[in-house]
Fold these 4 entries.
Entry 1:
Amino acid sequence: MIQRGDIGVGVQGVEGSQAVNNADFAIGQFQHLRNLLLVHGRWAYFRIGNAVCYFFYKNIAQVFTVMWYAVVTGFSGTLQYSDQILCHYNLLYTSIPVIIYALFERDISYEDSVELPSLYTLGPANRLLTTFRFFMWVAEAFYAATCIFALPYMAISLAPSGHTLPLAFTGLTMFTVNIVVVTVRLSIITLSWTCYHFIFYIGSVVLWFAFQLIEFALPNGLFTSGMYWDSYNLWSTAFFWLCVPLASWVAILPAFVYKCYKDCFDPYEHLSGSWRLVEERKASRKRAANQHVAEDLVPKTPHEFVRRKTQIDRIKNEVGTSEGYGDVERGVAFLQGKGKLKRAVDKLSAMRTLGRTDSDDSGRK
C-alpha cells in the first residue's frame, strides 16, 4: 500500500519497522499525522511552489541579459560579464536567500493550519504550480531582463575625459542591478520575516560589493583579470548611482504593484474561498481575548476589590499626582509605554468606575 501511494507514511509501532523502512516519512504516533499533513506538508508545498517559480525567474533574468547583449552586438561572442562573475551568480549571491525563504516561509500560522483542515486543499488543488502561474513568472522574468539590460546599456554616458565608458562598466552595472532586482523580488513574496531574512537578503547584495572591493583592488585579481580598479572607477561616476536604483525600480515595478493590489483587495488569493475562514478565526480570537480581559477586570470578591483599589493608590503615588483620575491615566500610559505596567490603563479605567461607586456609597453613609 505504501509503495503504490504517491507519498508513504509509516508509523513506528509494535508491529515492527517494516512499514517505516519502506516509507518516505516515519512518525512515532498516529496523532502526529495531523501535523505532518496539515502543517508541515502544507507549508512545504507553499514554499516549494513559490521557490520553483522564483528559481526560473532569477535565472531567466540573468541569462537573457546576456542574450540581449548578443543581439545588439550582432552575436559577436563577447560578454559584458566576466566568466567568473557569472559563475558566482548562483553560487554566492542568489543561493542563500532562497534557502532561507524555503526554510522559514509560511502564509498562515500553525494554529490556523491545524484548526482549519480545509486549507490543506491548497496542495491537492495545485494552486501554486499551475501552467498559467508559471508562465506569468517567466513573462515577468523576460520583462525584468529587458529592463536590467536596456536601461544601463542605453544610459552609457561620456566620461569627464570625453571617452565612452568601458564595456566592463556596463557589465558591472547590469550585474549589480540584477542582484538587487532578484533579491527585492524574493522579499516581495516573503510573508514571514525573521532576523535571518534581513541578514541574508541584505547580505547577498553586500557580499557582491565586498567582492568588488577586494577583487578589483588587486592588480591581477583572485578570479578575474584585466579589471583592475574598474569598480572604483565606476563608483566615481554618476552613471552608476543613477542607473542602479532607476533600473531596479523599473524592473520590479509590476511585481510591486501586483503585491500592493493583493494586500489591499485579495490578501489570501491562493487560499481561494478559505481565506474567509482565516479572517473569521482571527476575529473570533480577538473577541475571545477582549472578553477575557473584560472578565479579568471585574472584581469577583470584596477582597479582590480592596486589592485593586490599593493598586490604584500605588499607581497614583508612582505618578506623583493627586489631581484626579485623568492625570493618573496619562501617567500610567507613560509608564506603560516603558513596559513597566502592562494593561495598567485598562485596569485603571475599570477601577475608575468602581472608585466613583465607592465614593458615592461613602457619601450616602
Entry 2:
Amino acid sequence: MDAIWESSYELFTVHRIRVVEAFRGAAVEGEIMEIRQFGGQLGSLEAIYDDRLTFNEGDDLVLFLYDITDRLRPAYLLHSRHSAYYFPPPTMRRTDVLGENHVLESVSDQNSLPLTAGDLKIIAATPIFVEISQTEWKTSEGEAEVRIEVIANHPWSAYSSEEWLTVTRRGDSVRLEAEANATYFERTANVKFVTGDVVETLTATQAARRPLSITVSPITMELRRGALRNITAIVEGLCNPPQTVTWNNVNEKVLCIGCVDVIECC
C-alpha cells in the first residue's frame, strides 16, 4: 500500500491486490492489480475522506472497479461505500458452505446494498454490452460537434484516436468536437467505447478543406471618362478566417475606389 500525489493536487492511497477470480471484465486470474482511493498520508501531508475504506493484508474481497482498461494507471472503486465486500464473510467458519442466498458482509458499515453469492453468479453470467446511437459521423471541413448516446450495463469509457477530435463525457452520452480541417485531405478518427473487454467503435470522417478560388464578375468591361462601374469578387473555400482580396490596378488612368475589402465567402 502506497500513497501518491498527483498533479491534480489529490492524494491517493494505492493498494496492490492479487486477482483470485474475475467475475466480470478484463482482469486475469493471478494478476497483480493496483486500485486507489482518495486520501492517505504522504510524509507530513495527510488527506482524510470519510468514505475511505480500510483494507487489511490478507483480506479476501469482492471489489467492483470503475475502469481497468488503462493498465498504466490504478483502477478506481466504483463507489466508496458499495464496492467492497468480504468473500467469504469473516464470521463464516471454514466448515460452513456458502449458499447462493448467503449475504456477503460489506467492508463499509454505511453500505445499504445487499450482495449475495448468487448475485455474483448472475453478474458473471450476464453478457457485457455497450451500444452507441450511431457508428459513423461525417462532417464538413469546419468546426463541428455531435452528441452520441451510450447504453451499457457496465462502467464504460470513451477515447479518440486523433487529437483533432475530442471526446467529452456528459452522463450517459459523449460530445464529439472536431477542429476545422486546415488540410486539403479528408481525415478520419476512431472513437472507442470500452466496457470490460467489449469495444464499440465510431468512425468520424471530416471533409478536406476546399481550395480557395476567386470568381470576378464581370471579367471585361468598357469604361468611358467619368463612368463608375462595380466589380464583384467571390472567394470560394474555407473562410476561417475571412479572406481578403487585394485589387491590383495596372492602369493609372482608371481610379480604383475601395480596392481592399473582405469579400463574401460561399
Entry 3:
Amino acid sequence: MPSTWDERFAGEGFAYGTAPNRWLEAQAARLRPGSRVLSLGEGEGRNAAWLASQGHRVEAVDGSSVGLAKAERLARDRGVAIRTTVADLADYVPEPGAYDLVVLVFLHLPPALRALVHARAEAALAPGGLLVLEAFTPRQLAFSSGGPKQAEALYQAEALRLDLPGIAWEVLREEEIELDEGPLHRGRAAVVRGLGRRATGLPVVRGRDPDEEAAASLRALDKEALIRIVLDDAKNWLAHDGLWFQAVERTHGMDAAIDADRAAWEKFTVVEARRIMERLGLRPGGGIPALLECLGQRLYARLNIQEATEVTATRAVFTMRDCRVQSARQRKGLPDFPCKSVGLVEYAGFARAVDPRIQTRCLACPPDPHPSDSWCSWEFTVEA
C-alpha cells in the first residue's frame, strides 16, 4: 500500500520544487570540495542533486521510494550521481563519524522519534562536521505555507539544543521568512534555522594538556559561536547556582541555604578573582583600577547590567543596575532575595583577592531598602 509520501511525490511535478533550500544554499562556501554529505528526509532530491552538482558525495535517505526515484532522475538530468537509501528513519542508523555535512531540512517527526533521529544525525558527523537545519516552529500553525498541522511535530530552538547537545551552534534562531519552494511551500512562514558544528571531542591522552585539548575544540569556531558559548556557560552557571540553593532551602530551610551560599561564595569569589587576574596578567595590589577591570570580567558581568561611578584612584562605587536573579523574582511577584549577607562575603573577598588593601562597604542591598533603578551598591576604598 503506498505511503502518504509516495502519494505526495507520485505526480510529474516536484512538490517542493527543484531548487535547493535557500538556507542550505547559503552555506555553500563552508564546505570543502568533495565533502561527504548525508541528507535525511531528502524527498524528491532538490537538495541532494544541488549538493552533488557542487562536487560533493551525497547520500540521500527517505522513506519514500517514489521520492528517491525522482531524486535519482533529477541528479541524472543534471549530470551528477547521488546514492539513495529507502529507509524508515526509526530503523536507519548512519555510519558514525563519517560525514562532513548532515542536512535536516523540514524533517518533521514525532517528539520521541525526532530525538532519536537527531542523536543519530549528530553521531554521524565527523568532528568539526557541519549540521544545517531548517524546520517549522509552532507559530507556523498561523500560516498556510506548509508544514504539519500538529503542534508536537513542530520544532523550537531550545528543544533542538537538547536534542543535539554535541553541536556548537553558530546560528540557532526562530524567525519569519517568505517561502518559495514549489507548490507546497509558498508564502509567509515561521521557521527555526540552525547552523552548527560537531565539537571535536579530541580524546585526552597521557602527556597532553587537558586545557589545550579543550581550547582546540574552540579554535575551530567563529566569533559569534564563541560569544554564544560564553553567554550560555554564564547562564548555565547561574542556573546551577540557583538550583543547588533551592535544593538546600527545600530540605533545610532558607537560613541554612543562605549559610551554605555564604560559605560557598567565601571560597569561590577568591578562586574567580585569581583566575581573572591570571588571564589578564594582573598581580595583586593593583588598587581600584585593577578591581574594576576584574569585576568587568566576572561571569555575572555577562548576565547583569553593572556600573562603576564616582571613580578615583582610591575609591569607586559599584552598582548593579539589573540583576537577573532579582528581576526574575520581581516578574514572578516574589519578594527581593535577601542577599546582603552573601554579598558582603562575595564582594569583600573578591576585592581583597585583587588587592588586600581594598575595603568594602555595602551602600544598599536587599533585604535593606534600595533605589528603584538598582538592586545593590557597594563602595570600594583603598588608602592612598
Entry 4:
Amino acid sequence: MSKNKSHPDAQYLKQEDIGEVIAKGLAYTERTQPKNPVTFFANWLLKHSDTVKQVELDKQKYDDKQNLIEKFNSDQRLAAKAKDKTPNQEEKKEKVIEEFDTKVKESKDLADNLQELVNHLKFVSESTAVYVGKVNVPIKEIQEDDDDTAHIDPNAVAQIQFTHSDETHNFMVDKILK
C-alpha cells in the first residue's frame, strides 16, 4: 500500500465516534498505570457509554437550569419595568382623586354625581364592578281610614334597589337585592 493510503481498518478506527473514544481510554489507562491495563481499559470502555449518557444528562440539566435562571431574570426585569411605571399610574390615580374631590366639593346636589362616583370608585379601587343603590323597606298597603303608621311592616326586610352601575354592569340598574 502507498504511504498516503491507510489500511481500511485504520480508516474505520479513525472515525470520530470510535478512534476518539479509544484514544481517550488509552490515554486514561496510561495516566492511571493500573496493574492490569487490559482489564482496566476494557472496563473503561464498558463504562464509557454510561459516562457519556451521564455527561449529556448533566449538560441538559445545566441548560435547563440556565434557561430557568434566564427566565427568572427576565421576569425580574419585567417586574422592575412595571414597578418603574407604577409611580406614573399612582400619579394618575392621585390626579383623578383630586379632580373628583374638587367636583364633589363644588357640587350643589351629590345625587347628581352618583354615576361619576361609580366610575371613580371602579377606577380607584380597580374593582371589576361597582354599584350604587338605595335601601328601601317594603311597606304595606293601607286603607283610607288607617292611621299614619299603618304602612309600616315591622317584619319587612330591607332591600337594596340599584340605581347606578359601571358601564359593564348596567343590567343591575333597577334590580332589587333582597
